[in-house]
Amino acid sequence: MKISLKISALIVALGFALTGSIAQASPITWNTWNSASSGTMGSVSVSFNSGGSYAALVANYPSYNPDATFADGTIVDNAPTNANGIIYLVGGNSNVNTVTFSTAIIDPVFSIWSLGQGGINARFDFINLTPIFVAGGPSTEYGGGAISVSGSSVSGNEGNGTVQFLGTYSSISWTNPVYENWYGFNIGITGVADPSAVPEPSTMLLLGSGLIGLAFYGRKRQQG
């Protein structure tokens, strides 16, 4: 009986460990741009096609400070750095921008810097994607405030911040319909995607719940 209770306690602890880990912040590997069309994100190669819109690499800028503007400490543990660089965009058309990954990635995060300005509310309109707000606020360079998210769009009037896309992706596409000189973006991951090897949050919750249920069932049998 004592052995059974110890096993039950271990199962319960494991279940809580699995479910509790979901709420922890994830260390992010941010893409480092080598050019306006390519970069590296850990073991993942990144390519960018602006669809004919003007785009350029700005190296060693911006500062991505303060850190809390781009990393909330709950979902995203660390902001990009100026060593990662940024892609300079101006928008003002319906051209489709696409970031493509050499390996599918899970739950990517997307940082946006200096989106819009006084009198100009610029946007990223993502295609068949739903961004989730993670963090936002003023930048060290220009102040401003947080980006805002509505449906598939992220907008800002001197807006900064980070959003996340839940799921597995080989590419991410959007348009920048509003002209402004200039705003930029970068992208990051917590890991590459082998969906069969990396449990999705819902799977982990079910596993944790199932283990807990087995533990209580075992205790009930001992008491019966």
What would your notes on this structure say?
The protein has helices spanning 2-20, 67-70, 201-223, and strands at 29-30, 32-33, 38-41, 44-49, 55-58, 86-89, 96-106, 109-115, 122-126, 132-136, 145-146, 148-150, 153-156, 159-164, 168-175, 183-189. It is of the alpha+beta class. It folds into two domains: 1-23 and 199-224; 27-189, Jelly Rolls. The strands form two sheets. Strands 1, 5, 6, 8, 10, 11, 14 and 16 form an eight-stranded mixed β-sheet that branches. An eight-stranded antiparallel β-sheet has the order 2-3-4-7-15-9-13-12, with no helix packed on it. Strand 3 and strand 4 (44-49) form a beta hairpin. Helix 1 packs antiparallel against helix 3 (201-223). The chain starts with a helix and ends with a helix.
Measured as a percent range, the helix fraction is 10-25%
Largest sheet: 8 strands, mixed
Shape: globular
CATH third-level topology of the largest domain: Jelly Rolls
SSE pattern: HEEEEEHEEEEEEEEEEEH
Strand content: 35-45%
Ranges with pLDDT <50 over ≥5 residues?
A: 1-22, 198-223
CATH architecture assignment of the largest domain: Sandwich
Structural class: alpha+beta
Q: Output the radius of gyration.
A: 21 Å
Oligomer: single chain
Average pLDDT metric? 84
